[in-house]
Amino acid sequence: YVFDGGVKGASGPYAETDRPSPLNVYGSSKLQGEAAVAAADPDALVIRTNVVFGPEAVGKNFVYQLVRKLRANEQMNVPQDQVNTPTYNRDLAD
């Protein structure tokens, strides 16, 4: 959301040093939030993550949705033009 998807012309994750370039209001607001946190506490850690999965009460994360579709023998449409790094929610919380 804070990046434009260019990934320096390659496929793979962004580095911490890559320059953000949000494409929409949502991405811009996330970047502004990061800046506000850094200004309020220079020692704060901002974590950029996506595709969070693992135990959660609502059951709406990607893995839960995939399992529900597979059990129901239903098709699930997923993007084929994205590179993601899934993050286990309990690892993130630790």
In brief, what are we looking at here?
The chain is mainly alpha-helical and 94 residues long. The chain has helices at 25-40, 62-71, 89-93; strands at 52-53, 87-88. 33% of the residues lie in helices and 4% in strands.
In what order do the strands lie side by side in the largest sheet? 1-2
Q: Give the rounded overall mean pLDDT.
A: 87
Shape: globular
Can you summarize the main beta sheet? 2 strands, parallel
The portion of residues assigned to helices is 25-40%
Ends apart, CA distance between termini:
24 Å
Q: Number of helical runs?
A: 3
Low-confidence stretches: none
- From N to C, what is the helix and strand string? HEHEH
Strand content: under 5%
Number of strands: 2
Structural class, by secondary structure, is mainly alpha
